[in-house]
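Worked example 3 (structure in, sequence out).
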């Protein structure tokens, strides 16, 4: 890859304590096909307000074009893909070769993200599983020497969900240890996604944030620098848990995940609050993909983290731009200026 990647430059400045607001990292998660299947690209606009049983969905070709448009815009720092879409866009079309955007692929697909229509998997304790291999992410095929130049990606998302069930959590940690060893041998970097429990963990809901923080610190305490994640992706459980984790170990770069689509203010307030309380990364999937105009949505996320607009100012500006583009908003402006309670597990 010939063009320097903004992600690496930003991470270096963050670790050196020289980062500014402009170094906040925005990632677009376009890996939902590994979770939702056919519904991943989102509904056709004409069917947006219909029920799922009646709705019609965009196609894989539509989804890939959305990704191409985001890459062409160039405002995000990471685009996260499934291995199959990475093969098409990075290896075959070489869209990242002259782009400052870093491609990444989902390296595992635990059972709590199997959110298929009619499925019940997300309601059971999360089990470790991976479809993709590091070789296929980097090269699109099995490769004996993973130090060779690659056209795919050397960065992946690894996900783990703690449930407070010793059998499932024990197995998840065994799989995580195996992945780290494989990644180190094959020159593969990763960022670590840690979800809130996807089942009732049997503790006070107010302890979910501390439960997650302790698990993160505990499991990474035994991991030396070569095996540690570039950064974390966790739910925003409020300012106190985020500040606690950030202040405990400043070398651990913390990012937040987006969760369900919600209102536009939900997304804009979330990225504002996360940045305010110490996060340096936001990885939004559905919040971007299900917006009326993803490119305009991404532009306003950038305005917020750069301190150019407050969340409510950004909502008003976003609606004004939609109007100028002739795009109907999903909600009236006054409704889009309301906050709702977004889910914090993958299926919500």
């Amino acid at each position: 890859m010939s063009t320097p990647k903004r992600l690496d430059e930003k991470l270096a400045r963050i670790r050196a304590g020289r980062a500014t607001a402009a170094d906040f990292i925005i990632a677009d998660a376009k890996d939902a096909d590994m979770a939702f299947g056919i519904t991943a690209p989102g509904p056709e606009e004409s069917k947006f307000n219909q029920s799922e049983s009646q709705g019609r969905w965009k196609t894989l070709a539509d989804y890939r074009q959305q990704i191409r448009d985001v890459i062409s815009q160039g405002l995000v720092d990471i685009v996260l893909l499934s291995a199959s879409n990475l093969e098409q866009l990075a290896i075959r079309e070489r869209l990242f070769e002259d782009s400052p955007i870093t491609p990444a692929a989902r390296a595992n697909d635990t059972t709590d993200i199997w959110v298929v229509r009619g499925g019940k998997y997300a309601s059971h304790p999360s089990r470790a599983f991976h479809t993709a291999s590091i070789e296929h992410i980097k090269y699109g095929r099995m490769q004996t020497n993973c130090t060779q130049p690659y056209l795919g990606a050397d960065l992946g998302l690894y996900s783990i969900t703690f449930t407070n069930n010793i059998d499932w959590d024990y197995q998840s940690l065994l799989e995580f240890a195996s992945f780290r060893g494989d990644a180190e041998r094959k020159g593969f970097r990763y960022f670590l996604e840690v979800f809130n429990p996807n089942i009732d963990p049997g503790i006070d809901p107010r302890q979910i944030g501390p439960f997650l923080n302790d698990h993160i610190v505990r499991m990474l305490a035994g991991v030396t620098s070569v095996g540690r994640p570039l950064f974390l992706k966790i739910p925003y459980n409020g300012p106190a848990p985020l500040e606690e984790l950030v202040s405990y170990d400043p070398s651990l770069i913390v990012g937040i995940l987006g969760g369900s689509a919600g209102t536009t203010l939900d997304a804009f307030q979330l990225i504002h609050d996360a940045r305010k309380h110490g996060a340096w990364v936001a990885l939004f999937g559905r919040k971007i993909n299900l917006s009326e105009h993803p490119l305009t949505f991404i532009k306003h996320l950038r305005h917020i983290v750069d301190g150019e607009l407050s969340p409510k100012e950004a909502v008003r500006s976003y609606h004004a731009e939609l109007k100028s583009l002739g795009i109907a908003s999903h909600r009236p402006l006054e409704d889009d200026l309301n906050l709702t309670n977004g889910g914090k597990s993958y299926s919500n």
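Notes: Confidence is low (pLDDT under 50) at residues 47-53. The chain has one domain: 6-336.
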